[in-house]
Amino acid sequence: MFTLSKRTDYGLMALAHLADQGEGEATNAKAIAAAYCIPAELLAKTMQTLARSGIVESRNGPKGGYVLSRRPESITVAEVIRAIEGPIAMAICQAGETSDCDQYQHCPIVRPMERIQRKVTGLLEGMTLLDMIGTSVGEPR
Q1: Would you call 105 helix, strand, or coil by DSSP?
Q2: What is the helix (H) or strand (E) element at residue 34, kind and residue range?
Q3: What's CA 46's distance to the chain center, in Å?
């Protein structure tokens, strides 16, 4: 089964929350975690990862927290997944780990899997944070 980790789920939820905030309005990880019943420690680590990758900015001080580093329409789902999970891959061989697969040299599904990989990656590259949250607060997601 192809699934994203809870860290990615939580990261996308937090980014959607930040996108719904007023521009430049910081929100701390603890408040986001409480709003969505997310484990605060795991979300804090996820937000640090997103900050290191440049997707969010961390602000210090009494009104500190996190803000999006760019507008929601310029942050792709693929970018978020790569920041948290690493390379997007449907199989180990597509993540550059061909040495981990004994069948790679003789595998009949390598090429079809590469096509699937390109389509999935294209879909994720084409979907932005704004696409995920809708164009305005309160719009069905």
Answers
A1: helix
A2: helix 29-36
A3: 10
8 Å CB contact between 137 and 20: yes
* Contact (CB, 8 A) for 113 and 95: no
Q: What is each CA distance from 51 to 47, 96, 106, in whole angstroms?
A: 6, 26, 41
Give the pLDDT confidence score for residue 49 in this predicted structure: 97
pTM: predicted TM-score of the whole model, two decimal places: 0.84
Spatial separation of the C-alpha atoms in residues 112 and 58, rounded to whole Å: 42
What gap in Å lies between CA 76 and CA 70, rounded to an integer?
11
Sign of the Cα torsion 116, 120, 121, 122 reads positive
pLDDT of residue 97: 57
Token digits of residue 131: 């696409």
Indicate if the pLDDT at residue 41 is higher than 80. Answer: yes
Return the bridge partners of 67, or none: 57
Q: Who contacts 98 (Cβ-Cβ below 8 Å, separation ≥6)?
A: 104
pLDDT tens per residue, range 126-138? 999 999 887 544 4
